[in-house]
Amino acid sequence: MATITMKELLEAGVHFGHQxxxxxxxxxxxxxxxxxxxxxxxxxxxxxxxxxASKFVTDLTSxxxxxxxxxxxxxxxxxxxxxxxxxxxxxxxxxxxxGLLTNWVTVQKSVKRLQELDEMSTDGRYxxxxxxxxxxxxxxxKHLSTNLAGIKNMKRLPDALFVIDxxxxxxxxxxxxxxxxxxxxVVDTNxxxxxxxxxxxxxxxxxxxxxxxxxxxxxxxxxxxxxxxERAFSDEVADVQQTEVSPEFVGExxxxxxxxxxxxxxxxxxxxxxDLAAVLGGNIRKAPAxxxxxxxxxxxxxxxx
Length: 305
Description:
It contains 10 helices and 8 strands. The protein has helices at residues 6-11, 43-61, 74-87, 104-122, 131-148, 170-179, 207-236, 252-272, 276-280, 293-304; strands at 16-19, 31-35, 38-41, 67-70, 91-92, 160-164, 183-187, 198-201. It is elongated, with a radius of gyration of 22 Å.
């Protein structure tokens, strides 16, 4: 599974939450304090909870299962598409179509139509049509591709979702919950963590924070998927006599994994001893500022908006 360090979190600005007036009280346990009207997220908890999420993703994909990457806000679109493609996983980065999960049979028809149009555009069938007909088909293909390109090769419902900003992707999270599909999500101080199975407390607006989490989760997904490929290869050559190989060295990937594990252990020991208050400087109140019942209700309303 992929790992993350305190240094990476700090450099990406993961600790910066929303303004104190825009918080969800359910996030209180993940807040370290507040400074200058901005909540500071407890990165020690982020480290621990990311580790749990990363392990879940690797374990999931190591059995051949799929995780759907979801991030439709502008600053998440590129990272979601690039990292999901790298991991060989499906993604949605433009607009979540209502019923994409709960009405998958119907959505699948649109996906098949997109596949058909893609084939028509490359196999010469367009040449048999009039210019007007081609323009009409291309317009349809472009529309379908904008919304469905990331799931064009997804043959079934995903086994989990990785979400950037559970508030912004509330419909996706709701559909997943209805179907019992686990949700891994980056959750900011204005979100409701109770609707997410694997909470990763962190800044869900900053480009660097989004890229960091998306890359690391993609690393975890890719690592698990590689295990499937390696098992398949092992099965194919099971009857072939081979030179015995030490389990400490199984090629480049295994060597990198072993080295990374050593580095990770050192990083974890170091991160466990980090004084977050000292690292972030002074002027941090250790607990969320007291709010009246009316202010809390207003904050919850803002978070749901």
